[in-house]
Amino acid sequence: MKLRCHKSGDVLTPADPLGVGGQASVYGVAGRPDLAVKVYDTPPTDLGDRLAAMLARPPAGLLDVTAPAAVAWPLDSVIGANGRCVGLVLPRVTGRTSFGEVVNPAARPVGVGFGVLVRAARNLAAAVAGLHAAGVQPGDLNPNNALVGPNGEVVLIDTDSAQVPAPNGLFRCPVGVPEWRPPELQGLPIGSVDLRPCHDLFALGALVFTALMDGNHPFAGAPVRGTAVPVPERIKQGWWPYARRSPYRPRRQSPPFAGLPGEVQALFRQCFEAGHAAPLARPSATTWVDVLDRVLTGPVVPPAAATPTVTVPASTIWPDWVRIREWAARRWGPVRRRPRTAAAVALLTAAGVAAGVWVQKPKQPPGPGGKPTPALWQELRREPRR
């Protein structure tokens, strides 16, 4: 099979297959180890116009796939034997692992530590920020559409499905995965909405969460009672397990949320709690970059090993109910939704133990004939009445 590049006129010969998707296949190019070609099984009717719009406005600063943050942006469109556009030419990305494998502890390459995961999350946010600055909404952000290098470098792939500006409107994103779509888009036909940056920011926050929380999806969890519903429905309802009154509790294997840096915890709450009713409240991609840059300047410790410092005012007599709730949700089944009850039981148990120790305090033996000695009488007078 021979393919002709529309812009340059070069003729390319697809070589070794690199990947097969639901709509297209990706091949290497014979004699060009730096290129790949993506060929659609059934090319969309607007593919040529979409690629022309993308080639006219490439995102600045994101085209070098060896940089910390980059996108595999189309380099040219290709014409098939029938004279129609059937695919596109892309830069070939090698030596990378999918984001989903890197964050999964069971599939993670050897030697990938928590610092690499934080850098990958930071670079993913930087790539999204660059696309947003260029007026592009990635749309289909999910763990399979980002490749991660050994030091946390990130390249976004499958960008030909992104929403891009057109001369007379927009080329919408025609694909998506419900588990990574924001609540306001759940249930709507994919490709029926003009995307805004806030829609991408939900998926970005969710991907950052998986990177920092050992591959756990932010809406994964066990129901407090009843039967679990699918993750997309939880997203739609805003049932985030770390919210105060969520009907779901965190998974037992999840690292402690309280072990994350305070700034990061606040951004997650802003994304999944405040952002549920107000999408514009979600943290921007540049905000994620700034906060994760600050995390990387200090000791980078995974949440399971972190020992966060909590400052409690001297006038505060109530414990941190959020932390008690999270601990109770993981450890105490019967009281996982009643943190105040859990605290009261713990206090009463401690008081009972102390009382038992006090009652069993050894006393001086009595004197001859079973009568108390003068010294014992004196001690009994000093003891408080029981």
What's the overall geometry?
Answer: elongated
Major beta sheet, strand line-up: 2-1-7-8-5-4-3
Total number of helices: 10
Tally of separate domains: 3
- Biggest β-sheet, characterized? 7 strands, antiparallel
Give the ordered list of helices and strands: EEEEEHEEEEHHEEEEHEHEHHHHH
Low-confidence stretches: 307-322
CATH topology-level name of the largest domain: Transferase(Phosphotransferase), domain 1
CATH superfamily of the largest domain: Transferase(Phosphotransferase) domain 1
* Percent of residues in helices: 25-40%
Core attributes:
Transferase(Phosphotransferase), domain 1; seven-stranded antiparallel sheet; Phosphorylase Kinase, domain 1; four-stranded mixed sheet; about 375 residues; 15 strands; single chain; alpha+beta; 3 domains
Task: Give an overview in words.
The chain is α+β, with helices and mostly antiparallel strands. The protein folds into three domains: 1-94, Phosphorylase Kinase, domain 1, CATH 3.30.200.20; 95-313, Orthogonal Bundle (Transferase(Phosphotransferase), domain 1); 322-359. The protein has helices spanning 47-56, 99-103, 114-133, 197-212, 231-237, 262-277, 285-297, 321-331, 339-359, 374-382, and strands at residues 3-5, 11-12, 14-20, 24-29, 32-40, 69-71, 76-79, 85-91, 97-98, 146-148, 154-156, 164-166, 169-171, 222-223, 248-249. It has a seven-stranded antiparallel beta sheet with strand order 2-1-7-8-5-4-3, covered by helices on one side. Strands 6-11-10-9 form a four-stranded mixed beta sheet. It has a two-stranded antiparallel sheet with strand order 12-13. Helix 3 packs antiparallel against helix 4 (197-212), helix 3 (114-133) runs antiparallel to helix 7 (285-297) and helix 8 (321-331) packs across helix 9.
